[in-house]
Give the backbone structure.
Amino acid sequence: AQSVAQPEDQVNVAEGNPLTVKCTYSVSGNPYLFWYVQYPNRGLQFLLKYITGDNLVKGSYGFEAEFNKSQTSFHLKKPSALVSDSALYFCAVRDKGFKTIFGAGTRLFVKA
Amino acid sequence: DAMVIQNPRYQVTQFGKPVTLSCSQTLNHNVMYWYQQKSSQAPKLLFHYYDKDFNNEADTPDNFQSRRPNTSFCFLDIRSPGLGDAAMYLCATSRALAGGEQFFGPGTRLTVL
């Protein structure tokens, strides 16, 4: 079965510094990988996805993610963090049919 | 703007009193989902529709039911809410594509007294 793991419950970074939120996956076949962000009392918002093609995927709000097949990772990155990036981030993988499996989430704190 | 709308945003019900949450979409997506999310945990899929084809997750309690009368609307019925059903309920949609991302509504926060 497909699965994703987010090894960090929380990531702390200073504003202006680069940030990385880690995700590893386990899939059979071609992986369809996603990142979503959730702000307090809101639904999830799609950030970016990897289906095929370039390993570096660019998404919304300056975020990007690097697909690494040999390390089975799909880490979310941003060159310069903003306080407004503070939120809960979910990595996800598409399962069979239309199901999506979400990771446990990583809370990002960006300090001014 | 095309979007996913959930009503109400906050719902309070009493233990055992049936409640219905609603979701509508203007995206014209084939697939609609209902998730339960507790305390910033990962969303837990309850069921989804592909057009009118209903797909229930094996571990979704019978207490939870759903209806999709047309493409735009989907309802979540909780027949006899228990204290453990207090959660955020998220509706989402996607195109019927293998790599299609999901579009989420703002959620309904359910409180059970």
Observations:
- Chain A has one domain: 3-111.
- The two ends of chain A are 41 Å apart (CA to CA).
- Chain A touches chain B through 24 residues (CB under 8 Å).
